[in-house]
Amino acid sequence: ESKETKTEIECTEETEFTATAYKKYELTATGVKKNINGNNIEFVFSRWLKDGETISTNATETITVTGAATYTAVFEPSETLIYYNENDVFVTAETTINESTYSGTITDKTTIKKVLCGNKVTAIGNSAFKDCTGITKINLNNVTSLGGYSFRNCTNLEEVIAPKIKTVGLSSFYNCNKLKNIQLGSIGNPVESIGQETFWGNSSTSTVKIYIDTQGGNVTSLAGETWSASTVEYYDASTGECVNIILGSKYVGNTDITWEQIPNKDKITQINGNVFSGCTNITGEITIPDKVINNKNAMSFQGCTGITKINLNNVTSLGGYSFRNCTNLEEVIAPKIKTVGLSSFYNCNKLKNVQLGSVGNPVESIGQETFWGISSTSTVKIYIDTQGGTVTGLSGETWYAPTVEYYDAKTGDKIN
Question: Of the four listed, 66, 88, 231, 262, which is most buried by Cβ atoms within 10 Å?
Answer without folding.
Answer: 231
